[in-house]
Structures are given as structure tokens and as C-alpha cells.
Amino acid sequence: MTSLPDFLSSGSPARLFPVVADTRREERTLSILLAVLARVPGFYREILGSVGVRTGARTRISAYTEVGLAAETGNSDRPDGLLLVETGRSTWSALVEAKVGRSVLDPDQVERYLKLAREKRIDAVITISNDFAARPTHSPVAGAIPRLRQLTGNGKVGLYHWSWAYLATCCEVLAYQGVEESPEQDFLVKQLNDYLAHPTTGVERFTQMGPEWRNIVHLVSTGATLTRSTPGMEDVVASWFAEERDLCLHMTSHLNRPVTVQIERKHAGDQKLRLEAGIATFAESQALTSVLRVPDCASDITIRADLARRTIAVSMALKARTDRKSTRARVNWLLGMLKADDSRLRIQAYWPGRAAPTSESVTVLREEPTRLQSSNPSLLPHSFDVLLTEEPSRKRFSGPKAFIEDLERIVPEFYDLVAVTLKAWQPPPPQPVARATNAQERELTVDETGVGMETEESGNAR
Q1: Angstrom distance (rounded) from CA 193 to CA 106
Q2: Chunked in runs of 10, what are the mean pLDDT values of the chain (462 residues)?
Q3: What is the CATH number of domain 10-201?
Q4: Which phi and psi (to 5°) does residue 83 adopt?
Q5: Where do the structural domains in the chain lie, given as residue ranges?
Q6: Mind listing the pLDDT tens digit for each residue in 291-337?
Q7: 438: which strand partners?
Q8: What φ, ψ does residue 17 adopt, rounded to 5°?
Q9: What is the pTM of this model?
Q10: Which of 213, 222, 229 is nearest to 280 (CA)?
Q11: 400-414 and 213-221 helices cross at what angle (nearest 10)?
């Protein structure tokens, strides 16, 4: 039997086939996950990389479940797991707390684990549940731990969160791509992917907005003014951020490429600050907006749910092709990349100076591209937005679950109709200026060493 690390008083290596009671789903699911994680480099590179842990050819990972740590503070909690990542002379360690199904993380318990980790000089505490977070550094319980900065600040202990959906998506993508290291590793990943996809595991995706969604939509529809202190604002924005992350996972599975949400740098490491900024923006605009980045896409994809208009819009921005000298030619260039006609698709053009943007449907522009022209016929558009806008019924838009269903249908549809065909235009590089040369003014002479050299006559210098 593998010996335990010195600071563990109890525990057992994570097993691929754990022998536990059927009621202990958390222990069984975590044991299987950690067992595969420790044996598949492609998997642990992705997962551990998300929390800033570097791995290499010499990395060795050990995983344990139901661990006990003798605590000087009298803390008798037993974390669900422990990860040890050894690379050369350095070792990184993390306590793991997992929840499945509708079980929620307990902030008090997580705080005790942070204290325990600090006491034992363990580098991090990782929580796993069906709660979503924009990034692994954004813990869903961070706001409920008063002493969080004292425990995690200045490099003391890291607090990270992985949703089960994130782990399942990473596994799904890796299973689709195949594992090059060995057939055995490929088999393990595919088996884990099938296991996490089964409903009995308790792994869930984000499926509906929070309980305050319906009320906030109703307030906006009646003309009420939203403020930062309007009851339910935090619930709605937090739900949107959770769906934002789930949508990235959904699109990652759809494209087999990592899709990420764009977050302002000042908000990337502070979930509370990001939530406050999101509430302020929502109160002012009465709309929820996200920006997704897809590798090699012509531009970022913007998603906007407008509560006042009751619309869901997905769009991409492109610079106009400036070598085309008419509005018709620039619009036709863009239309030529849009292979499908859809009544929901529109093009919005932006003009120099103070000229207002103009908008028209793609189906109309196919017949008459100049319908997009500004009121000033001498102006040429400098950029375009391609939008897919849908107006769900009032019932579906205000329905917490139906709204998410429509959103997760519309975004992939936009990608398949628009994003996959658009290419950003770049002007060609400048050509060298042609200079006249006179071959008769050049002659090749040979010096005493026999090396040829060019000379210029008539006083011409290079």
C-alpha cells in the first residue's frame, strides 16, 4: 500500500473503482476523477493549468480521498481529497472539497479548510460543485467568508473552484481529440467522460436563471427604473455570470476549441468587484452583456439580452474593406461571406464623423446593398456589425429556464450561420517604391584579390 504523506493522519489513495456505499456519491465521483487526473498528463495539464500550476515531463501527481490532518487548532474536519503535485524539487498541494447534485458548499467549512491549509502549509483549497464561476479564482463562497483576505492574501493559501461541468467539458474535449500518450490513457478519459455524463452522478449544467429573474423582467416591462439597490439585482447578475461560464463550456464542446469569456483585467481577480460593476452596468442599460472569444475567429462574439426590448442579440464586428471605393462594394464584400439568408440577420454600418449608424436586414441588402447608405451619400462605412436578433415571447423571455434554453440555442446558431464564415480583412503591406536604375552606369570591376565589386559612375551614390 502506498505510504501517506507525513502530514496526513489518515486517508487512502484515490481509486478508480472505489468501494463505497451508493449513498456516498460525492466520495465515489471524486475518487474516480482524482484517479484519472493523476494518470493522464493531458488531463491534468489542462485542469491544473487553470489554477496556475505548471506541469512537465517530470511531474508526479498523487491523489488521496477522505484525508485526515492532525490540526493544532482542534479542527477535526476531514476534507474529501488531497492533491500533491511534485515537479523536480518543488511540491504543490491542495485540499479538495466536493459536492454533487443539489448539495451546496458550506462557507464556514471552506473557511475551516483554509485555516487548516495555512496551518499545514498546504498551498490551496479547491472546491468542486455544480456552482459556476467565471474563473477558477472566483469562488462561489468567497463573499460569505469574512476573513477571506486574511487567509488567502499575500500568497498564503489559494482558494479555487472547479464546476463539475467544467471538468466534464475538459474531459469531453480530450476524449474527442484523443490522448496521444497511450491507448490506456485514452480509454480512461473516455470512460470518465461517459461516467460524468450519466445523470446518476449528480453532475449538472446551469439550467435556469435565479429566482429573482422573473420579477426583474416584470419591473423593466412596466417601465420601472432599475437601481443598484433594487431587490434581486445581485441574483440576476450572478445568474448571468454563471450562465456566461456555462455558455463557454457549451461552445467549447460545440467547437472542440477553448472558448473563454472576456473579463476586464481589474475584475479578473476580484469576484466581488466584478459583481458590483455588473450590477451598475445592468441598472444603467437594463441589459446583460457578455463577450466570448473563440480562437481564430474574425472578432469576439458579443451577446446581449435586452430586458427593455425583450430581445436576445448575438453579434460580431468587422472593419470595412477600405480598398472598395463605394458603399455598395463594401456591403457586397460582407454579404459575400454570409452564405445563408436568415430573417433574423441584420447588418449595422458605422460612418465617419457624427453620422448615425444605419441598419438593414441581410435579405433586403441582397437585393439592394445601397439601402444601408448613410443620409450623406458621400460617406463610406468604416465598420460593420453582423447581428442575429431574436425576440422570444414574453412568457419564454421571463421564464428562468426557457430564457436559458433560448440563449443556448441562439448562440451556436449564430456561430454556425455567421462566425464560421467571416474573415477579417487587412490591407496589404506597402509595396517598395520603384526606383529607376541604369545598367549602363554600373560596371563590375575586379580588385587585386579577384573579388568582384560594383562601382557607381557619374557621381551616383548608393
Answers
A1: 28
A2: 70 87 84 94 89 89 87 70 90 94 91 90 93 79 83 83 86 74 87 88 85 95 94 90 86 88 82 87 97 95 97 97 94 94 95 95 95 94 97 95 96 96 91 66 48 45 40
A3: 3.40.91
A4: -115, 135
A5: 10-201, 213-419
A6: 999 999 999 999 999 999 999 999 999 999 999 999 999 999 999 99
A7: none
A8: -125, 75
A9: 0.70
A10: 229
A11: 80
Cα distance between residue 331 and residue 349, in whole Å: 9
CA distances from 196 to 29, 316, 327 (A): 8, 34, 52
Residue entry with cell 439597490: 229
CB atoms within 10 A of CB 33: 28
Pick the CATH number of 213-419 from 3.30.930, 3.40.1130, 3.30.450, 3.60.21: 3.30.930
- Cα-based angle 373, 374, 380 (whole degrees, multiple of 5): 75
